[in-house]
Amino acid sequence: xxxxxxxxxxxxxxxxxxxxxxxxxxxxxxxxxxxxxxxxxxxxxxxxxxxxxxxxxxxxxxxxxxxxxxxxxxxxxxxxxxxxxxxxxxxxxxxxxxxxxxxxxxxxxxxxxxxxxxxxxxxx
Length: 124
Fold this sequence. Notes:
Blueprint: E1 3-5, E2 10-13, E3 18-25, E4 33-39, E5 46-51, E6 58-60, E7 68-73, E8 78-83, E9 92-99, E10 113-114, E11 118-123
Parallel strand pairs: 2-11
Antiparallel strand pairs: 1-3, 3-8, 4-5, 4-9, 5-6, 7-8, 9-10, 9-11
């Protein structure tokens, strides 16, 4: 499995932008689906975005479509989540994940490698 490290996170005001990155180690990065999930206090971990191994296919939660962009650079073994027009309801711990299958609205159980999580706080 892939080991994931998530530099990034921070405190921003509503309407601002933030970029999260996920550095992966392992031999299977280029064929793994990469995804971002988030979890707010008292809520279940929810899907945010995912990208296929080649980068050709992406999926987004309805709540972030048009605002967030997931990307990957297989040569650098990194994935990123560009978050624009942030809203207070985006406040959560964000986790990157890797797994073998891409599908719309995936479950956390679809992924077998996880980053440690990084806090994103959006103030109003």
